[in-house]
Amino acid sequence: MNDNQLLRYSRHILLEQIGIEGQEKINAARVLIIGAGGLGSPAALYLASAGVGQITLVDNDTVDLTNLQRQILHTTERVGMPKVESGKLSLQHINPEIQVTALQERTEGARLEELVQGADVVLDCCDNFVTRHAVNAACVKYAVPLVSGAAIGFDGQISVFDRRHPDAPCYACVFPPQQQFEEVLCSSMGVFAPLVGIIGTMQAAEALKVVMQIGRVLAGRLLMLDAMNMEWTRIGINKNPACPVCGHHSHLTL
């Protein structure tokens, strides 16, 4: 690192658990963020400020006035702009040294596989089960750690799914794709603005820990937050041997 980087990241370097070695791992990291909305905003901002070398933002939406209550990557002046382009501007203003790739697309199939393969860690910051399961399947297939977050109303959840470890569960072990879950959207149900900040920031923290290989990440644990009462619930989660995605007889389809 040069003198400017040593100064910029000095508060990380002072932490004995991180130091120069850990910061260099962050600087060399490649992070894929699916969704540049409520969760993706704080996650991306903290990953950029921490110095993640390559950040790829994927989102097919444009900035809307209703987003600005919680999606802090964006500004009033950027209403109508693609979210990924708005996000890229914000991230580069914070840290011009990093590389940000903005992809305005709904990524799936072979394209999703290509992006996942090129990442050290993936953050699922989307808002629908179809995308969540597609991202999970790709992360399982290529053994790329997945940091999954969700938030609606006053309720949030976060976990890490790391299939580099054979006994680790995947997202489909907890939320089987064949089961019917009610699709609840912010546009119809609403969401408490700081909630996405809490969960998204935690996603960034878990991603950085994965990159640096420090601490205990949320693999095998699902944290759920009731923000109305500010109470956390922790649930242990195990690999499902019959999981259609990561089980013994799984057949991956993206």
3D structure, described in words:
- The chain is of the alpha/beta class and 254 residues long.
- The chain contains 10 helices and 8 strands.
- The chain has helices at residues 3-8, 10-13, 19-27, 40-50, 83-94, 109-117, 129-142, 171-174, 186-189, 193-212; strands spanning 30-34, 54-58, 99-103, 121-124, 146-152, 155-161, 221-226, 231-236.
- The protein has an 8-stranded mixed sheet, with helices on both faces.
- Helix 4 runs parallel beside helix 5, helix 4 (40-50) packs across helix 10 (193-212) and helix 6 crosses helix 7.
- The termini are far apart.
- Residues 250-254 have low confidence and may be disordered.
Task: Give the key terms.
single chain, 254 residues, alpha/beta, eight-stranded mixed β-sheet, 10 helices, globular, disordered C terminus
